[in-house]
Amino acid sequence: MLATEGTSQTYKAKREPLVTPTMVLIGIMPIFTFALGTWQVQRLKWKVALIDELEEKLEREPMPLPPQINLAALPDFSFRKVVLKGHWDNAHAILLGPRVRDGTIGYHLVVPFVRTDGSTVLVDRGFVSKDLAQTAKQNQSTVQGEVEILGMLRTAQPRNSFTPDNLPDEGKWYWADVDAMAAHAGGEASGVQPVFIEEVFEGHAGDASSRISHGYPVGRSPTVDVRNSHVSYIVTWYSLSAFTTVMFIRLLLKRRQALARLPR
């Protein structure tokens, strides 16, 4: 009886695999996370090159826009400064938001701009606080006659899955749907092109605070705001790769020790 049990244990010990499915899974994780870290390195190089390109565009002199803008060429001119002359179509001003600036909740005031030498475009005049949003629209209605503004060309930014649908009929705009905003301002029939421009504000922080407190919009600063968090992703993935590598080695050593203790 004892001999039979010993033979059974010896047979079982010889058939016991060194690497289990769980260890295979853990062994794949270092390779997978290392590959993700390497991919993020490539993404970082691309993002740095993109930011350098956009900053170089910002340093160029402001350019005038042609009477009719080639929409297909807009992505190539994103972040280029432009000078516009014309008057505001205050009847179609909208509040886009909510947005947050320095901890204050508010909106962005977007107003169609009728150019004297061409089509109408959409101009984001900047941030207004929630409490003074209607005051800002009233202040905007008093701006009459021809004006000249400095802006920055931007391309449409897709909304995320948490952003609700715009409700133009109710005057609720949650994200910058440039085509829909252009249609709201009259569309092609009224010479409105789906071109989005952010007005540039070159004042200091005190000027910005004063404007917001009196219900006047504050435009964006002429800087590149492209998010670049790839370095943190690189650290995360490479750290996970190192951690799972150590974990796999420890499990492998424990497995070998456990097998070594089995009867032979």
Structure in words:
- By secondary structure, the chain is an alpha+beta fold.
- Helix 2 runs antiparallel to helix 6.
- It has 6 helices and 7 strands; from the N terminus they run ααβββββαβαβαα.
- Strand 3 and strand 4 form a beta hairpin.
- It has 2 domains: 52-213, no CATH class; 229-264.
- The mean pLDDT is 88.
- 41% of the residues lie in helices and 21% in strands.
- Strands 2-4-5-7-6 form a 5-stranded mixed beta barrel.
- It has helices at residues 2-15, 21-58, 133-141, 178-184, 205-213, 230-260, and strands at residues 63-64, 81-88, 94-101, 104-115, 120-129, 147-154, 192-199.
- The radius of gyration is 30 Å and the shape is elongated.
What's the overall average pLDDT, rounded? 88
Using the CA coordinates, give the radius of gyration.
30 Å
- Counting helices, strands and paired strands, the structural category is alpha+beta
Strand content: 15-25%
- Order of SSEs, N→C? HHEEEEEHEHEHH
Shape, per Cα inertia axes: elongated
Tally of helical segments: 6
How many angstroms separate the termini?
A: 17 Å
* Structural domain tally: 2
Model regions low in confidence, pLDDT < 50 over at least 5 residues: none
Strand order in the largest sheet: 2-4-5-7-6
Described by strand count, sense and barrel closure, the largest sheet is: 5 strands, mixed, barrel
Share of residues in helices? 40-55%
Task: Report the count of strand segments.
Answer: 7
